[in-house]
């Protein structure tokens, strides 16, 4: 039974899990690669046999930008790329730290909070004990 | 079998650059087409293949056929963003070489400045980026710039020097949209938009259009102007969304440049003049590295202190580029038109003496699609 034969596509499965407070990424049963964003076939080997696994949630900032916005329109916010321990990268934001203290190499961990449009979204906070 | 030198650009023109009040994107496009056909000495009815893509019209190839009153043998609407037109030249060369078409028209136009005042795009934010509200496309390039600075120590000043060089070239080009003096300090003092990129790191928002006409090399000398031969071309597509780019410091230009230069049988040191799609200052640094004009990580030093400005060690974006000349959204066609002008010796005060080999390079999406063309005069065949 492969992913292609199930009811929902991987985008919908991911979104449904997230709505239930569960952050999972795909893992290829063909080659073992982790996969994000959710896909129908593994970009590493082409297998359609992708399962869902919980990542550790730990990651490292790869790049960051601060979008500059007037205070009356909500003020500045950060946008980052995070490399998860599983070897996949995702866009996110980092909460709980001043924007200008976020830099490549910062260790972060995932949680689920609200995205820009009120939707559930994966966000990160600095790892406790990390600088 | 190689496409090297098999096809040539025999006509080129711009239209509506800067502000084209009261004109639609397609009207600007057709003005450029009329100019290019006149330049080529080709009548409209001889055009038997067309290529375009437009900011908002997903079926712009069909609209173009309609506006020109043509029923082309081939209508190319391939769309990879601002790089599209440099891919169209490759498809044109294939059609010409296979004798599936005899005269190919490639064109673009946009009225984004007078119609909306900002980048006009049919694109929305990607599903897995939308929750974080990156500015499209600016924040994607900002992330690439941030990573380049982190990994290689590229400096804020070096980014600024790309914009300063573009302005210095624009001051030599009467058709450039902004020709006021610009210093490194001006760039660094300009408004921060998405760190580390500031307003003066960003391309202009203008109207404008461009068109070229291509024919087989054997027929190319039957036209009024010296032919500009397509010696090589190549593409690279590494991702669509910036969060999926494998390495933010290495673009598909590494592949497209190697393919194009391999086909042409040239190396970076042979190139006399370079036209790069400079949507943002970081683009120029990335592309100079990936195309082999300097080593990876050394692009900042390469552009520093006038390295690519008039009198520097490599003339880059001699029209003033998207940063200072014209940027109506999908800039690729303008790299081709400026390369043609340089190789014909038509570039006035900004002419590179004796230019025989030019590189034109287009970027599409968010560093996603990279397409390189090598163009040369008859002496390079
Ligand atoms: Zn796999």
From TrEMBL, chain A:
Stated name of the protein: OB-fold protein
Superkingdom of the organism of origin: Bacteria
Gene3D superfamilies: 6.10.30.10
Domain ChsH2 rubredoxin-like zinc ribbon: 17-50
InterPro entries: ChsH2_C, ChsH2_Znr, NA-bd_OB-fold, Thioester_dehydratase-like
Annotated ranges, domain ChsH2 C-terminal OB-fold: 52-111
Originating species: Salipiger aestuarii
Pfam families referenced in this protein's UniProt entry, alphabetically: OB_ChsH2_C, zf-ChsH2
UniProtKB/TrEMBL annotation, chain B:
GO MF, any single term: acetyl-CoA C-acyltransferase activity
Thiolase C-terminal domain span: 234-377
Superkingdom assignment: Bacteria
InterPro entries from the UniProt entry: Thiolase, Thiolase-like, Thiolase_C_2
Keyword list, A-Z: Transferase
SUPFAM superfamilies: Thiolase-like (SSF53901)
Name of the protein this chain belongs to: Acetyl-CoA acetyltransferase
Lineage: Bacteria, Pseudomonadati, Pseudomonadota, Alphaproteobacteria, Rhodobacterales
């Amino acid at each position: 039974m492969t992913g292609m034969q199930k009811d929902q596509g991987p985008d919908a499965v991911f979104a449904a899990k997230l709505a239930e407070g569960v952050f999972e990424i795909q893992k290829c049963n063909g080659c073992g690669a982790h996969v994000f964003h959710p896909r129908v076939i593994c970009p590493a080997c082409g297998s359609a046999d992708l399962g869902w696994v919980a990542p550790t949630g730990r990651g490292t900032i790869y790049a960051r930008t601060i979008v500059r916005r007037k205070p009356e329109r909500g003020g500045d916010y950060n946008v980052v790329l995070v490399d998860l321990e599983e070897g996949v990268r995702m866009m996110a934001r980092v909460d709980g730290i001043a924007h200008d203290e976020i830099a490549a190499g910062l260790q972060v961990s995932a949680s689920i909070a609200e995205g820009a449009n009120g939707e559930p979204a994966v966000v990160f906070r600095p790892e406790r004990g990390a600088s | 079998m190689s496409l090297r030198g098999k096809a040539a650009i025999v006509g080129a023109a711009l239209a509506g650059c800067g502000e084209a009040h009261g004109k639609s994107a397609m009207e600007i496009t057709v003005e450029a087409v009329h100019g290019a056909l006149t330049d080529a000495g080709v009548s409209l009815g001889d055009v038997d293949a067309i290529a375009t893509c437009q900011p908002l019209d997903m079926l712009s190839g069909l609209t173009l056929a309609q506006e020109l009153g043509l029923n082309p043998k081939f209508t190319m609407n391939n769309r990879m963003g601002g790089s599209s037109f440099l891919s169209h030249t490759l498809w044109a060369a294939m059609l010409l070489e296979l004798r599936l078409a005899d005269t190919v028209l490639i064109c673009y136009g946009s009225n984004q400045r007078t119609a909306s005042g900002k980048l006009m795009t049919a694109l929305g934010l990607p599903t897995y980026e939308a929750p974080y509200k990156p500015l499209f496309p600016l924040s994607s390039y900002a992330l690439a710039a941030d990573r380049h600075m982190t990994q290689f120590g590229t400096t804020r000043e070096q980014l600024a020097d790309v914009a300063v060089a573009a302005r210095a070239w624009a001051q030599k080009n009467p058709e450039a949209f902004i020709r006021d003096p610009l210093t490194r300090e001006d760039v660094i003092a300009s408004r921060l938009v998405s760190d580390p990129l500031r307003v003066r790191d960003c391309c202009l928002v203008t109207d404008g259009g461009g068109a070229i006409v291509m024919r087989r090399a054997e027929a190319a000398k039957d036209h009024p102007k010296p032919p500009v031969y397509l010696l090589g071309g190549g593409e690279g597509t590494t991702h669509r969304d910036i969060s999926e780019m494998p390495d933010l410091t290495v673009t598909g230009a590494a592949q497209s440049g190697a393919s194009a230069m391999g086909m042409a049988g040239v190396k970076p040191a042979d190139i006399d003049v370079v036209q790069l799609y400079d949507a943002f200052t970081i683009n120029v640094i990335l592309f100079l590295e990936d195309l082999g004009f300097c080593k990876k990580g050394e692009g900042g030093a390469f552009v520093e202190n006038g390295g690519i400005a008039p009198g520097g060690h490599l003339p880059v974006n001699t029209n003033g580029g998207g940063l200072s000349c014209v940027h109506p959204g999908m800039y690729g066609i303008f790299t081709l038109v400026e390369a043609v002008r340089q190789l014909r010796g038509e570039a006035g005060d900004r002419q590179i003496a004796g230019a025989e080999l030019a590189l034109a390079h287009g970027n599409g999406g968010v560093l996603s699609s990279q397409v390189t063309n090598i163009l040369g005069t008859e002496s390079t065949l």
